[in-house]
Amino acid sequence: MKFGVVVFPGSNCDRDMYNALVHDLNQECIMLWHKDSDLSEFTTEDCIVLPGGFSYGDYLRTGAIARFSPIMQSIIEFAKNGGKVLGVCNGFQILCESHLLPGALLRNNNQQYVCKNLYIKDVQDKVYKIPIAHGEGRYYADDATLDILEKNNQVLFRYCDEKGNLVPEANPNGSVRNIAGICNETRNVFGMMPHPERACSSLLGNTDGRKIFEILFSEVMEGVI
Amino acid sequence: MKFTVQVKVMPLKELLDPQGKAVMTGLGNLGLKAIEDVRIGKNISLQVEANSAEEAKQIAEEASKKLLANPVMEYFEITAV
Per the structure, how many domains does chain A have? Predict the structure, then answer.
């Protein structure tokens, strides 16, 4: 399995993602430019990553313009053929705008850009400390869509307190049902607002991000959860 | 012929609009207590080459559906052609 990290104009977590994958997780990784559209060196075993940042200056809506970039047309095709795609932060916003994931990410309900460590838990109720950094991370979808997501176990991560309780105070942005990360129905497209790539090195004081990547790239992809 | 089409894009009524809420607080501080609610959207002005106003409107509608508005969180209206 190898990775491709897309660089859009305005991406700013692309190098963090590359460093985490290559140096902390010992993965093969290639940088991809938004104007390219050739993904022929990737197979459906591989994963394309859309990093965090402010692609196209967040103009119109976050992720709205990136969706129409040349590489996204290839990535949409790649995902529909079963290729794996992960979007973090702005990458999650782009995946929602591209209709590869349901719902949308709205401006935080507290009117603030929030940048801090917080806790999220996975479907097995294990709690992780992961940083977030966003102003528009309030996940929203209508109730019918949310019920489908929950029924299919597509909600991968939720904001919680240190002990794993889904309390309103642990929700940093007003996301519905404390949702921090989801996958699509076929479990090959993943989106999350927290930044696991910023928590993969002991030098940075937090390695919980490694466990997030392990969950995504082993358990979820292999169909264990 | 050239037409100027105005597209109004607004957050869905059932969704919280934090920007509107912040401005509402500011208006309250100004003493404008009669204003009970504020919601903020966008006005997008398009210059469209078309054979008729109707055609210009249709083109603007297509642009709005495909890019200018996201129906998960917004609705749009063509306000003037």
Answer: 1
Hunting for tokens 């934090």 — which residue is that? B18
Q: What pTM was computed for the model?
A: 0.94
Is the residue at A129 inside a domain? no
pLDDT in tens, A116-175: 999 999 999 999 999 999 999 999 999 999 999 999 999 999 999 999 999 999 999 999
- CA dist A181 and A155 (Å) reads 6
Q: Establish if B19 touches chain A: CB-CB under 8 angstroms.
A: yes
Strands A138-140 and A127-134: unpaired
- The CATH number that applies at residue B25 is 3.30.1280.10
Count of alpha carbons within 13 Å of A72, Cβ hemisphere only? Answer: 22
Phi, psi of A116, rounded to the nearest 5 degrees: -170, 170
Mutation pick from A59, A98, A106 vs chain B, by most beta carbons of B within 10 Å, is A106
Q: What ipTM is given for this predicted complex?
A: 0.86
Q: CA torsion sign, A216 to A218 to A220 to A224?
A: negative
Can A222 be counted among the known catalytic residues? no
